[in-house]
Design the sequence.
């Protein structure tokens, strides 16, 4: 049992490398490019683009709401990073380890360079009140998972992976963690005060 725990521990990472960051940025870019390309529609009899190619749609297919599953996944990945341990905390470490490893492989093969550490997994800590919200969220997702389309689940998982790679450290991406985690902590405190102590206002 101790050996298994040690092996699992070796497959997690509390740091983010430049190669892992590249993987996270790649996930972010691909999802938004796919969304942007969704703003084109196949040519119809009523009109064609140049050389019979697709024509720009009216913009309805480029609906920002289509990015919600991905960004919800990023938020969830950020919350996983904020967990000090448990399945979510260790799962975030495993995804970060995988991102670092895949990124290192591609970077070394493509550029001949090795990656460097750019950040530590230091998202704002999840409070006990915040853990109430996260636990309720996990239970809800488990119970509702069959009601979501397969494509939405895939998009969400890519967002989770990106969240574990991007929402840590400092700088622009750290703003995600600085917004999500304190917000969840505050919501948990509000619910505890209201539901348990009856002091919503």
Sequence:
């Amino acid at each position: 049992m101790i050996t298994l725990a040690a092996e699992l521990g070796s497959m997690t990472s509390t740091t983010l490398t430049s190669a892992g960051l590249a993987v996270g940025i790649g996930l972010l870019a691909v999802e938004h490019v796919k969304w942007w390309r969704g703003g084109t529609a196949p040519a119809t009899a009523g009109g064609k683009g140049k050389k019979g190619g697709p024509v720009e749609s009216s913009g309805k297919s480029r609906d920002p709401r289509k990015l919600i599953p991905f960004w919800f996944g990023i938020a969830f990945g950020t919350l996983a990073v904020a967990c000090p341990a448990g399945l979510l905390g260790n799962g975030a470490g495993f995804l970060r380890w995988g991102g670092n490893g895949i990124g290192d492989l591609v970077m070394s093969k493509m550029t001949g360079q090795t990656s460097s550490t750019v950040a530590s997994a230091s998202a704002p800590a999840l409070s006990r009140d915040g853990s109430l919200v996260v636990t309720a969220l996990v239970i809800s997702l488990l119970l509702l998972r069959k009601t979501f389309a397969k494509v939405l689940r895939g998009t969400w998982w890519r967002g989770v992976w990106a969240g574990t790679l991007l929402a840590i450290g400092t700088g622009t991406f750290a703003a995600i963690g600085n917004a999500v985690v304190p917000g969840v902590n505050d919501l948990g405190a509000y619910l505890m005060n209201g539901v348990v102590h009856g002091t919503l206002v």
